[in-house]
Inverse folding.
């Protein structure tokens, strides 16, 4: 097994069963109150969850978010979850394709089109890796998996804790701007659990980025994951920065008024009410990662399908209770922001 494949295997083990959630930091969706409508004048079966994202029609505003690739186990996970995305009409995100770039033998772990021919599939490469790759090399990753868009992930906090991680983050914004021009598919700038600030959103917009995934703090801490892989002498860095990041709700609210075409809210979202709150703050769709992975690990496909059906049911219930027949209406409903989130938004 290559070093990268071993790292991917470690990530899967820790993400599935390790103590890698934020301890004190939350998404702050608990600080968002949706205003109840006692006269919704709606039937539950009237509510429409469908939308168009990155050129594909989704049956619901859900993304099975980027998790894995590069190992045999990752291949089984990607195939199962991509087939579920196809069945339910969701988007599906691949994990970092760096392993595929380094070792073509693991490319099959990212090949999901055979089970998800029509799903919205998002490719994935690290921003620092993209700086050192040619346009043709990156395009090969996109075409090699039939991706509809390419996520370029920003992960400085994760990298500086990771024992074999990158330490130089210069040239990323310029590379993103060039990729927007060079690639035939949309480019999505995404974080990896630490969120995007208002300032970063403005810089991304100025660089031509029109699609983002905030991947905020409050769910899985990738700093915590990497902090458990380092030698004992370097664990202090992971401990110091375990709670680092911008809560998902704050990041969504900050970027919602910056004119992005697509705004994915990922990072610590667990249920349909949180999805509704994310959309009410301005998100296009919401991504869920670890809860799906854990249910697949513990209960297989049936457990994942049961969970996702519940998420959709909760989203429908929330929309009924605020009087929103469609997602566009949900984004316009009254909401009250309280507590710590109000403080974040005042910055």
């Amino acid at each position: 097994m290559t070093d990268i494949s071993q790292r991917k295997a470690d990530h899967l083990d820790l993400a599935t069963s390790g103590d890698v959630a934020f301890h004190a930091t939350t998404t702050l969706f608990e600080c968002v109150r949706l205003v109840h409508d006692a006269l919704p004048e709606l039937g539950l079966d009237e509510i429409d969850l469908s939308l168009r994202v990155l050129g594909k029609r989704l049956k619901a505003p859900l993304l099975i978010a980027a998790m894995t690739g590069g190992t045999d186990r990752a291949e089984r996970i990607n195939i199962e979850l991509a087939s579920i995305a196809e069945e339910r009409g969701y988007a599906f995100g691949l994990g970092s394709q760096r392993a595929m770039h380094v070792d073509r033998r693991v490319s099959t772990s990212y090949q999901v089109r055979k089970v998800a021919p029509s799903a919205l599939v998002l490719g994935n490469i690290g921003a620092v890796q993209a700086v050192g790759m040619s346009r043709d090399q990156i395009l090969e990753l996109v075409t090699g998996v039939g991706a509809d868009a390419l996520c370029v992930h920003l992960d400085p906090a994760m990298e500086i804790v990771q024992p074999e991680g990158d330490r130089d983050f210069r040239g990323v914004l310029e590379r993103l701007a060039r990729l927007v021009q060079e690639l035939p598919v949309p480019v999505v700038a995404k974080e990896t659990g630490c969120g995007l600030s208002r300032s970063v959103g403005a810089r991304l917009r100025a660089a031509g980025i029109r699609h983002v995934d905030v991947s905020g703090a409050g769910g899985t801490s990738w700093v915590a994951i990497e902090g458990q892989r380092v030698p004992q002498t370097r664990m202090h860095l992971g401990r110091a920065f375990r709670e680092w990041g911008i809560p998902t709700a704050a990041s969504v609210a900050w970027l919602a008024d910056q004119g992005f075409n697509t705004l994915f809210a990922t990072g610590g979202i667990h249920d349909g009410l949180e999805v509704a709150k994310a959309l009410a703050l301005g998100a296009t769709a919401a991504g869920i990662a670890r809860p799906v992975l854990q249910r697949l690990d513990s209960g297989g496909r049936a457990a994942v399908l049961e969970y996702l059906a519940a998420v959709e049911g909760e989203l429908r219930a929330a929309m009924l209770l605020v009087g929103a027949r469609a997602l566009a209406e949900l984004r316009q409903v009254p909401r009250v922001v309280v507590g710590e989130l109000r403080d974040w938004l005042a910055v």
Q: What stands out?
A: Residues 290-322 form the longest helix (33 residues). The chain has one domain: 3-345. Residues 3-345 form a domain with the TIM Barrel fold (CATH 3.20.20.70). The mean pLDDT is 93.
